[in-house]
Amino acid sequence: MTEMFIRCNTEEQYAKWMAACRLAAKGRSLADSSYDTEVKSIIAFLQMQHPAPAPAINPSALDITPEDYVSPRFLRKFKGKLVQRILEAHANVKDLPLIDAKLNYIKAWQSLPEYGISLFIVKFMGHKKEELLGVAFNRLMRMDISTGDHIKTWRYNTMKAWNVNWEVKHMMVQFEEGNIIFSCLSADCKVIHEFIGGYIFLSMRSKEANQTLNEELFHKLTGGWV
Hints:
Layout: H1 11-25, H2 35-48, H3 72-78, H4 82-93, H5 98-110, E1 118-124, E2 131-135, E3 139-143, E4 150-155, E5 159-165, E6 170-175, E7 178-184, H6 189-204, H7 215-222
Helix pairs in contact: 1-2, 6-7
């Protein structure tokens, strides 16, 4: 798999590229009727991130503890500027109705790079240090535990099989390019097995509302051996 970085000149150009990529990921083209709506949604989200001219609330009038709102890495990065940044972000949404504010929050959450990724601390066979394994709906990711940087990505469409050795609590996943074996330190390895099986099961279901649930297939995919 090859990663490409695309730099856009304007927000509108970025929105068009992002909308096109999102539709492509769903197997749709630019001719799809949802393309324009997707572009407008992305532009609206970008506008929400613009720094406000000034906070609506005086920073000195509130006792805000930044640790309650952001992760430690952002605390180190922004240090004394966080309260100002939080209040500037608040100024962009303070006049929104409650439902719109909640919807904007959900959109912002879904736009995060780590959205939908479940993280587990693991040790890969042959390696002594602990690493992160990210489990998403379409891929597994090997990640640096200190920085969160992606080291390796494996797509489910290249997966042959996955199973758990219950005696030693090791999990093996077979891909076309080779096998990976790891032990999970932050949860039972059965949890990762069930995540993968559940995502595979969901990908096999159609969009028909009247589709019956194949319980036998579900239990087979999330059980002990596949």
